[in-house]
């Protein structure tokens, strides 16, 4: 068995996974985010580690012989940075992926920030060498490290190494402050034209960072060493249990949907939405915000299609509009999702022409714009809450379709089917809607929230030599297959066309409204 840890933005999930993909035990613990002025978002790295231990202990509880655990593997959210000293102690809080304080324009205004906004020439070289230039939003790991240097010089001075969350957790497990070609991708400093990337001297120079504060790059296919004795004793593990290099949660989902082979794609519905598949080349599609990143599988790249808000849009609708507890009344309900499914199943497909625009925090792929926002379009006096509920599910599905069309062009193939995972994949109604909107079969995975854990564990078994790549598919259980209903194709094709038009036609309005609100 492998203990797999999936560190998300708001919670940690852990699972003990057998070689055949079965989950022996699972656990969860929450992680708190502190939102700060000017777009700041931080987490306490020590509290995050304690949450990892709590979730791991829960997952290990059903295991009779914990010393049979052969290793520990971790994946996590990424584009986040933990600064640590030479002993591995955090010198400051984790700076989260949603933190915008390191945007190049903002860095330029800080003391010593001159030159932090790259020129057109520098951006082009970044694209050629790495695949992504420094993001205007400041949501990349490089931006967070630069912000710490300029805005928190006392933290920067004490920092020996900057680590992504998965590498911080593996350091706490085995004591090594290291990273790999996958975990450092959003530091934007590696030469990804190489099969085994290294830090590129020119990019490091342009970053303004001290090179010795970057983590040592180690092979992704070799264990990092045994679990530290105190960790092994605390969790009841064998001191010979191995710790494996960490990967990001997009890659973990890609392994957990075996999206490194075949013509299908994996689609994740968590707080945000993600599409993942594979290509044999390094490529960046700037217009559609799609990029291929280094893969833990030799000889290929994973396509990263980060779409933005997914399941969080539904949570917002249910918690703030339908079952709210506010000055009007207490409409809270224990089981919101059972009521939702009853309402949606009784509402005709197409929601009586009502469209939901899901960009509550802005749009990413396939058209990045941080100032567009969400809403309902085409409501009438006949519109009911049931129509709005179904429109939310359909709107998120339309956004998937829009991105998937672009990813199909990027990967040069149309997907044969989709493997659906994440919290939203628990919904049979949503699974059927996605199949109908795309007119592509949807394979709803079993235990879909633990797909990244399963993928991380199966990759560890492969690293141990116990599982061939082609055998990973056998460890990915499908709960149910949802076939598209051809009679709905024309209806959804027309609504999808209007969905895309709604984005473009309202873009100037959204920008004007949100530019005014920022002043």
CA-based shape = globular
Which spans of ≥5 residues are poorly predicted at pLDDT below 50?
none
- Count of alpha and pi helical runs: 15
> Strand percentage, roughly?
15-25%
Task: Give me the side-by-side strand order of the main sheet.
Answer: 17-18-19-16-15-22-23-24
Percentage of residues assigned to helices: 25-40%
Rounded to the nearest angstrom, the radius of gyration is 23 Å
Distance between the termini: 55 Å
Output the structural class: alpha/beta
User: What is the overall pLDDT average?
Assistant: 95
Query: Major beta sheet, specifics?
Result: 8 strands, mixed
- Number of strand segments: 24
